[in-house]
Amino acid sequence: MADTTTTKTVEQPEKSNEELKEIATQVRRDIVRMVHAVNSGHPGGSLGCTDLFVALFFKVMKHHPEPFDMDGKDQDIFFLSNGHISATWYSVLARSGYFPISELSTFRKLNSRLQGHPTTHEGLPGIRVASGSLGQGLSVACGAAQAKKMNGDKQRVFVLMGDGELEEGQNWEAALYASHHKIDNLVAIVDRNGQQIDGSTDEIGGLGDVAEKFKAFGWHVIEGDGNHFEALIPLLENCVAATGKAKPVMFVMDTKMGFGVDFMMDGHKWHGVAPNDAQLATALDELKVGTEGDY
Amino acid sequence: MKDFPYTESKDTRSGFGAGLAELGASNPNVVALCADLTGSLKMDAFKKAFPERFFQVGIAEANMMGVAAGMTIGGKIPFTGTFANFSTGRVYDQIRQSIAYSGKNVKICASHAGLTLGEDGATHQILEDLGMMKMLPGMTVINPCDYNQTKAATIAIADHEGPVYLRFGRPVVPNFTPADQKFEIGKAWTLNEGTDVSIFATGHLVWKAVLAGKLLAEKGINAEIINIHTIKPLDAEAILASARKTGCVVTAEEHQMNGGLGDSIAQLLAREEPLPLEMVAVHDSFGESGTPDQLMEKYHLNEAAIVEAVEAVMKRRK
């Protein structure tokens, strides 16, 4: 099992799955409200990956929100390659203490640090590289992981990618590189929701068996459920436990696009479309937590 | 016209290799990445002395740029090495997003730039790289002229915080600048003071400008010759002072006219001091196979072309 002594959040007391679910529901409320407020953004993938973000930032990763350290010395660090699901990351960063929760109201607006896609350019704590143009995050994560090794830093690097973005060739350059250089302090996660803008990943890109592909590239591959903490937490602990064994680790994570909001689930329709007023009300009705937590 | 004696000719890429090896010894944060061109980039000495800080990336330049960006997170100063074509055109979006927009301290070191790559031909002879790189906000763009200057520039950019594009080349050229020079980013270097025309040259064209200066002196023309090793930030003060003194300008570079040094100086003059300008550069064309000297002659990037441009621009001088 995982060496959890080095992977627990230091700022947060141990959280139960029930507590994580409450946080995830709050994050989902943030996402639909943020996207609705500017009538733009990507709710589908954001909702589908909410449980992963909450699990990482509130349970699995060791990290220090304040003061933010770009180098992430002696911390687990996280990269988001599919930057379009920024709403989730912003909500989780704010709610884990990187910046004021009230700042979520500036999402995608002029002069905001919360750009449409994440960037270091406006100085938002928690972001270590810009992403949005797809396929670049895995390479950056490889470099950061190698820098950790050179520095004798025992913590790990996590990177989330969309499954559609695996159609970008750079990912496969990085997949070869990580395996060849035995970058074993790296946990990559693919959001295998099977959807991309123009349709399903099988219909558009013929993505096939992602797990087998990464195995063939020399990775240690773990597969499983990314939307239920009962399954997700042990899977992530298995990923962490698999680090340090001369292979990069890949978690092929099954999620549903739009998870948590019934009418946004399944299919690719809600990849990049914001809900209208009535749809927002329906979504918030479904996402029941103490509404006093809203930004 | 001043004399520029030199005892040997060397390739600028070897200056890079020597500078990188020195940096390896003096700065433990310097790391090097190469995309299967270690010998061509003269990175062997660094690789041999510091194997734990040398990363063979293979023929995967996009990944190399991303890995380099990632290594800065943790305080490393990555120097990437491949041909100029694969350092820029092939990986423009990786540089744009993961390095430039992200403000990462990566040094993009690019050999075999321009026509003087020679026989491999136009697929490898990039002539647009300065333009692409100078358009990126925050990118510093440097094109030194000989071995000594390339070595000094390589060492200097390690102390500059932020992304840098360092361009050098394959052929052996006169090594005429001092070995002990201090390289100042963004500081134009006046090689010869003159009164009749200002010649602003960069990279391999600096020596050609020196040769042109001698030919011009024989014709009674006293040319001011200035080495613009830094395309961005441009030393506007030095350029304007010289242009105002001489009243006409020639630029010279191994690059497309669009987007190169001449383009930057034309913009500056148009805004601040409209004066006659001629550009020695490639005119909207790809290169081809040939020896470096043959190509520089065919594409009018030699001392004869500079002399011709000087005579043309002086006729236009008010």
Automatic annotation (TrEMBL), chain A:
<protein>
    <submittedName>
        <fullName>Transketolase</fullName>
    </submittedName>
</protein>
<dbReference type="InterPro" id="IPR005474">
    <property type="entry name" value="Transketolase_N"/>
</dbReference>
<dbReference type="Pfam" id="PF00456">
    <property type="entry name" value="Transketolase_N"/>
</dbReference>
<keyword id="KW-0786">Thiamine pyrophosphate</keyword>
<feature type="domain" description="Transketolase N-terminal">
    <location>
        <begin position="22"/>
        <end position="282"/>
    </location>
</feature>
<comment type="similarity">
    <text>Belongs to the transketolase family.</text>
</comment>
<dbReference type="InterPro" id="IPR029061">
    <property type="entry name" value="THDP-binding"/>
</dbReference>
From TrEMBL, chain B:
<dbReference type="InterPro" id="IPR051157">
    <property type="entry name" value="PDH/Transketolase"/>
</dbReference>
<dbReference type="InterPro" id="IPR005475">
    <property type="entry name" value="Transketolase-like_Pyr-bd"/>
</dbReference>
<dbReference type="InterPro" id="IPR033248">
    <property type="entry name" value="Transketolase_C"/>
</dbReference>
<protein>
    <submittedName>
        <fullName>Transketolase family protein</fullName>
    </submittedName>
</protein>
<dbReference type="InterPro" id="IPR029061">
    <property type="entry name" value="THDP-binding"/>
</dbReference>
<dbReference type="Pfam" id="PF02780">
    <property type="entry name" value="Transketolase_C"/>
</dbReference>
<dbReference type="Pfam" id="PF02779">
    <property type="entry name" value="Transket_pyr"/>
</dbReference>
<feature type="domain" description="Transketolase-like pyrimidine-binding">
    <location>
        <begin position="10"/>
        <end position="175"/>
    </location>
</feature>
<dbReference type="InterPro" id="IPR009014">
    <property type="entry name" value="Transketo_C/PFOR_II"/>
</dbReference>
